[in-house]
Amino acid sequence: MTKSEAMSQNIRGAPRTQVAITALLIVAGVLILFVPASDEGRVLVPISEGHGLSAVDGIGAALLAVGGTWLEVLVVRRLPYLALPPRALFGLGLLAGLGMGLLIASVFSGFFWWWAVGATALGVAVLVLVPLTARR
Questions:
Q1: Structural domain harbouring 101
Q2: Where are the transmembrane segments (predicted)?
Q3: Is residue 106 part of a domain?
Q4: 6 found inside a domain
Q5: Are 60 and 18 in contact, with CB atoms under 8 Å apart?
Q6: Cα distance from N-terminal residue to C-terminal residue, the chain
Q7: DSSP state letter for 11
Q8: What's the total number of domains in the chain?
Q9: 15 — phi, psi (to 5°)?
Q10: DSSP H/E element including 112
Q11: 3/72: higher pLDDT
Q12: Structural domain includes residue 2
């Protein structure tokens, strides 16, 4: 038995559990970020006009970062098992990168509503890759 076969047999049920945990972390982080600004307290780190980081935002962002990074690691580790064609992988990577770029740009610049376009693009890529990661 090769090393990769031993690894896949040892972690057979692990991807589903890990994907579920990361999804919970991401949902908790997003829900905390949805707390109205009036209930968050004072701004600790001003980012741009209309944007700032409070302690509540910091907790939400930390949960989102941990969950998102963990999910990304799971997806990247499972990519060889997903058997997606190179063009599909390139397209999903491009869509996710564009979405993340628009999300970040909307915080640091004046085009506020572009976060919705970025979140949608990133969400589509995640909705394609995550079920495949959890299933196989």
A1: 12-135
A2: 20-38, 58-76, 88-108, 114-134
A3: yes
A4: no
A5: no
A6: 20
A7: T
A8: 1
A9: -60, -40
A10: none
A11: 72
A12: no
